[in-house]
Design the sequence.
């Protein structure tokens, strides 16, 4: 089902060519504030970010790339708009990819300089088109915005190919989920370059996660997309966690605990919401893919708890703790969270870490 | 693209037959606490809930149905497990649908009584199968759980048909997104009864919303599903809001404001996250489908803000307020939220309320 794309190496991470879907994010610090940026990248890496992009809106930020690169472990991508000179300055450093946008760097003579320098230094380029900054010449394109986004990105890619440059990753993003889906479906049929997916300016934490989950969910289910970035007006650590949850829902990657929690109807015997929330928080640092059930009553409770790696099912006074399908013990309401957390951590310690397959 | 299903009338709401996707939820109060239940239903209705289900785990709750029904405006569904007598008791009242589960009410002689009574009273039945309470006889079914869920629900439906009862809605839910998708894809090919979608026990607010968005997103995009219920371990009002956001992302329904907010990279000129969050909160009561942009900088900012009904794009000292593509005024940082909220409310007042089409 997966659309075949060519692999492109970003540092030691492969995008495309059947590699696992890569999770990336973007820093929100001023890039020239090296220490703050590096600290944020470290937090993002711990959360499961595999490639990091930083904005390069000025020369100070371009210069900072060198110091940031020295201090971080994951591949570094420079994001440049408007000023070709900044793209060239960014390419002076040992970065792992550069992202440029056909809508904001339009002068093809300058683009040629950037491409030739990237080629010389063997640095891949993402051509990233966004609905909000589409080159005006595509605005009137027939068949609407999705086709316009695709035409813009593919014409730029053709220009790169004519310069014998093929280390290309492509993205077309719209703040409209349906436009993003349609544009990427067209792209997947027309190009072999790996696709970077995202719903741009998706919104705040919950709303943006919903739009991203619907859009990327539909595309990834169809086998479209090689790397994803969830764009949220929120701490970028949330972007990374949401990205992993999307991949996990689709069975494409598994990282960290998944809480199966019932929605507490009038049948619930325990006050389940705080239990589920607390368990999720206390286990948020784990990377082992555990399935943990927190169930309020007897309708689906024991069934779900039995199928989970570990779980509790609520009863009249407390609940039952299940582990790998067996009842381990009866818990009082007070024991519920600490016992479940303790047993889950023990299970996690004994299980393998997330693999990249 | 939409799979054709037969329409089934639940009170004055139609599920299936090409009707708009219906949003439903379930109360978390003790059903026999009538006042608390009615208050929650009122809150849910205001949030956009169109059908409400209540748990009926005891006779007191069955009796309460009569009083609840008198006090609420949206159709009322009784959810019954384990005790056929409670289903019969629920059907004594003027409810709009009853939900039973083949895994928890297995005695077909009793099921026949329920079906005949529902038929006599012209009350539709949802046959709702969940992975956690699947009838044991289907556990060994070939081709795994999705096929087992489908076999269970369709055999039950056949039994209803043999009693000449066809006012049927069907659901098959798993806490696994992929299993839920697969089961519903099989179902859509095999039945003409309308489908109620949900990922069961999806989890806490954010995690559960992501799983629901991916699962329902994929299915609805394929034209599968006539009504949805998001199951969260959270206030059910959140379930309704998330459901509407999923439908809105897919362009199937539109309710309330959509905030297009950029993810604030190192390029942002304003402290955008709190602005976006505050604007979203202050406008959360609106039902008019407005597109509102809150953008941090010049890369996509003015472009997105111009395409939105209303928006701000950040600049060095404050930002610009756009309305229907035109700059209305320059805003100081302090004016940003109040001006945007005020103008959005004015726009909303002038626009039509959400239509059901």
Sequence:
């Amino acid at each position: 089902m997966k659309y075949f794309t060519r692999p492109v190496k970003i540092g030691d991470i492969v995008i495309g060519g059947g590699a696992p879907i890569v999770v990336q994010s973007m820093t929100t610090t001023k890039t020239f504030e090296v220490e703050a940026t590096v600290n944020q990248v470290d937090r993002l890496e711990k959360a499961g970010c595999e490639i990091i992009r930083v904005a390069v809106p000025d020369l100070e930020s371009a210069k900072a790339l060198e110091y940031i690169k020295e201090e971080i472990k994951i591949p570094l991508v420079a994001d440049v708009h408007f000023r070709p000179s900044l793209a060239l300055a960014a390419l002076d450093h040992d970065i792992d990819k550069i992202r440029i946008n056909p809508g904001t760097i339009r002068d093809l003579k300058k683009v040629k300089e950037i491409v030739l320098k990237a080629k010389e230094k063997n640095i891949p380029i993402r051509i990233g088109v966004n609905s909000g900054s589409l080159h005006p010449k595509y605005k009137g394109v027939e068949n609407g915005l999705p086709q316009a986004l695709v035409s813009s990105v593919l014409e730029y890619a053709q220009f790169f190919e004519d310069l014998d440059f093929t280390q290309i990753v492509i993205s077309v993003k719209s703040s409209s989920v349906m436009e993003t889906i349609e544009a990427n479906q067209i792209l997947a049929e027309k190009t072999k370059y790996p696709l970077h997916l995202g719903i741009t300016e998706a919104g705040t934490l919950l709303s943006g996660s919903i739009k991203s989950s619907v859009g990327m969910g539909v595309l990834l289910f169809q086998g479209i997309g090689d790397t994803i970035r969830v764009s949220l007006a929120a701490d970028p650590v949330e972007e990374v966690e949401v990205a992993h949850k999307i991949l996990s829902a689709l069975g494409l990657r598994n990282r960290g605990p998944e809480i199966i929690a019932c929605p507490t109807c009038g049948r619930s015997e325990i006050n389940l919401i705080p239990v589920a929330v607390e368990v999720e928080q206390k286990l948020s640092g784990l990377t082992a893919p555990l399935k943990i059930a927190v169930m309020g009553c007897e309708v689906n409770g024991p069934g779900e708890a039995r199928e989970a790696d570990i779980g509790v099912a609520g009863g009249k006074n407390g609940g039952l703790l299940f582990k790998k399908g067996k009842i381990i013990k009866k818990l009082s309401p007070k024991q519920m969270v600490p016992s479940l957390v303790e047993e889950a951590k023990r299970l996690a310690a004994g299980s393998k870490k997330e693999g990249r397959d």
